[in-house]
From TrEMBL:
Any one GO molecular-function label of the UniProt entry: oxidoreductase activity
PROSITE patterns: PROKAR_LIPOPROTEIN (PS51257), THIOREDOXIN_2 (PS51352)
Highest taxon of source: Bacteria
Protein name: Thioredoxin domain-containing protein
Key words of the record: Disulfide bond, Oxidoreductase, Redox-active center, Signal
Organism (species): Ralstonia wenshanensis
Domain spans labelled Thioredoxin: 52-242
Keyword Disulfide bond tagged: yes
Length: 244
């Protein structure tokens, strides 16, 4: 039990440090959002710590979600699609990107077995998440979406407006075009739509994933929640690949 309590303390520290990262004081809404996520983490850890009843393993949760045609990495005709709902200021999302994603890319995306789709779910208590998502999309206008995505996650401790502009410069983006895209909030409606859609299908935390096959324009498959290790994704992907 002490082990799980320690994990909860670490999670709380990470969430509160994200809140402290903001220039403005934490609002009541942000505070309530942090408390809600901490309660969800506590419930998850409690379930994981409890011994499982023999013969009563919980079935994997399935979900059907839309996969937009933009922000797709991999072959269009890949048999499996992995839709990721992410937040650029979420430390768990950054952990997934640093540890699990490179192996998934090497084993499944680069080999044509899977395509990877990103959808934005900036959480309310992450003050720089929306701006970071806009920055990545603005870089995409100059064919640097994935490169900017990598830079933002690798430098997550510095994603204020000035830092994002410096990453755009590092990638050789046209400064005027990038700055206009950001100033116009060009992609804010799409980001908000992504977030609203995620909540409408029951996704409220990041990172969350749906892995499966596309049927009638919808990815129908298994829901994976959290920065899970490679084996969790491998199991789901291989199971989907084995199906006719």
């Amino acid at each position: 039990m002490k082990f799980w309590s320690a994990i909860l303390v670490c999670a709380a520290s990470a969430l509160l440090s994200c809140a402290a990262y903001a220039d403005a004081p934490m609002t009541q809404q942000q505070g309530e959002a942090i408390l809600k996520e901490l309660r969800e983490i506590h419930q998850l850890l409690t379930r994981q710590a409890a011994p499982a009843a023999p013969g009563n393993a919980a079935p994997a949760r399935t979900l059907s979600v839309k996969a937009p045609a933009t922000h797709v990495l991999g072959k269009a005709n890949a048999p499996i699609t992995l839709v990721a709902f992410t937040d650029f200021q979420c430390p768990y999302c950054a952990r997934f990107e640093a540890t699990t994603f490179p192996e998934l890319k090497k084993k499944y995306i680069d080999t044509g077995k899977m395509r990877y789709v990103l959808r934005d779910v900036p959480l309310d208590f992450h003050p720089f998440a929306i701006n970071a998502a806009q920055s990545v999309r603005c870089a995409g206008d100059q064919n640097k979406y994935w490169e900017m995505k990598d830079l933002v996650f690798k430098n997550q401790s510095r994603i204020d407006t000035a830092a994002l502009a410096s990453y755009a410069q590092d990638l050789g983006l046209d400064a005027g075009q990038y700055q206009k895209c950001m100033a116009d909030n060009k992609y804010l409606p799409e980001i908000n739509a992504d977030s609203q859609y995620a909540h409408s299908v029951g996704i409220s935390g990041t990172p969350s994933f749906v892995v499966g096959r596309v049927v009638d324009g919808m990815v129908q498959g298994r829901l994976i929640v959290g920065a899970q290790g490679l084996s969790v994704f491998e199991h789901a992907i291989e199971e989907m690949l084995a199906k006719p």
